[in-house]
Amino acid sequence: QVQLVESGGGSVQPGGSLRLSCTASESIVSINAMDWYRQAPGKQRELVAAITSAGTTNYADSLKGRFAISRDNAKSTVYLQMNNLKPEDTAVYYCNSRDITRWGIRTRNIDLWGQGTQVTVSS
Fold it and tell me: How far apart are CA 29 and CA 118, in angstroms?
């Protein structure tokens, strides 16, 4: 079964940057659209950023200008670049895709999640 694999989390001081990556566990899978979510302790999961199959990007209003989502089709990887990080960005970050192509067949009745990666922003 296809899985999404995340990497790039860690601890950083306020003002620092991190880049999260999310890729499919199978090389024959391409990710057409993806969302990044985050969940802080005691809070609901919230949408951080999204990229559509056409490459259109959307962000949570509070994160515009600091976060950037991008896609490398050759690597079938989606990135979340996070700059000027703040303590309130501390959360577990998850990637999610409901639109992939596997063996040349596009599939949109699927709901894949990464395992989550911890981002901690603290001085």
Answer: 25
- Asked if 115 and 91 touch (Cβ cutoff 8 Å), the reply is no
Tokens of 19: 């880049």
d(CA 76, CA 88): 30
What the block records as the tokens of 112 is 């894949």
- pLDDT tens for residues 44-99? 999 999 999 999 999 999 998 999 999 988 878 999 999 999 999 999 999 999 99
Q: Which two tokens stand for residue 104?
A: 């040349």
DSSP the chain: ---EEEE--EEE-TT--EEEEEEESSTTEEEEEEEEEEE-TTS--EEEEEE-TT--EEE-GGGBTTEEEEEETTTTEEEEEE-S--GGG-EEEEEEEEEEEETTEEE-S--EE---EEEEE--
Nearest to 39 by CA among 123, 97, 117, 121: 117
Structure tokens at 76: 């079938």
